[in-house]
Amino acid sequence: MKHRMNRFLPSEAMLWRPRREGGGVECYLCNHHCRIAGGEYGICGMRENRDGRLRTHAYGELVTAHADPIEKKPLYHFLPGTTSLSVAGMGCNFRCSFCQNWQISQLSVRDGPLAEGYRMRPKDVVEIALEYRCSSISYAYTEPTVFFEYAYDIARLARLEGLANIFVTNGFMTTEALALIGHFLDAANVDLKSFREEFYATICRASLMPVLESIRFMKKLGIWIEITTPVIPGANDSVEELSNIARFIAEVDRDIPWHVSRFHPDYRMSGLDATPVESLRGALSAGREAGLRHVYIGNVVGEAAETLCPGCGNPVIRRRAFWLERNDLRDGQCPRCGTRIAGVFRKRQAGLAPQGQRAEATGNR
Length: 365
Hints:
Blueprint: E1 11-12, E2 16-18, E3 25-27, E4 35-36, E5 47-50, E6 53-56, E7 61-62, E8 64-69, E9 83-88, H1 102-105, E10 118-119, H2 122-131, E11 136-139, H3 148-160, E12 164-169, H4 175-181, E13 187-191, H5 197-204, H6 209-221, E14 224-231, H7 239-252, E15 258-262, H8 277-289, E16 295-298, E17 307-308, E18 315-320, E19 323-327
Parallel strand pairs: 9-11, 11-12, 12-13, 13-14, 14-15, 15-16
Antiparallel strand pairs: 1-6, 2-3, 3-4, 5-6, 7-10, 8-9, 17-18, 18-19
Helix pairs in contact: 2-3, 7-8
């Protein structure tokens, strides 16, 4: 990229309110609801109270940007076979011991100098997505809630250019944040990492209930949702827990795809073994027993990556690894029995603006 240069200055954050005492502020971007004294940072380490106003250090700079197959998010029922520009800023509001992207997700201004990134205005990101003929922009790799203001400005411009917007997220944002970004958010893959508060508290330094609330609220807003659970040996792989996750998803909507993903040892859990394939097959069975229509095994080539028609069992979409091999759907329906498959399979279904409408440029907030 040719955009590497000095950083933007910290800009005014969204979703905060002043506190009455001592110049403090309360951030309500995510469900930590950090109360931040003057000169201090929130849990994410990227939002700072400067003189009684909340500032974000996560605006205008990316640590990575890649054109990926949409299946890599993973999203299997949203514009299959298309390419998404995946972008990430620094930082996260979780501290997951098994994080696969910890080298960038665990960076923060609070903890010292940051790795050099790429300074890019929102319109630069959109132009790159169009240049690479992407159908969408995915805010991924790290937690998009942390660079919310930046994602919001990119998403508004992307919508005007006919691009879809996707969050790959831990789901810990507030309903206020979702209501705001929901006008421009077309799809999300939400990590539902466990169904136990103890897991979230000890392994992620967060809590479960707000994630469940976000999933329900995304569904209410009309955002296409898929859910991923990383199955970790000895941590969240019991039949009881996986069945509880599956039943929750089914209660929200049986058509929500559930990706049960193989854990690979990394970060502070590098001493564990990778997930046995049999454990993933057990999760697959739990999902189907709960009534879920679409359950997939992730990170294992050749295992349960096909989309099967819930009416007749016919494989209507075939994949290998993160690549689409064949899509037999006809107007979103099974060609054999006519059953409609849940998902967004054409751009017009995503409520996107026509191509060619030019967006106004925006710079730093």
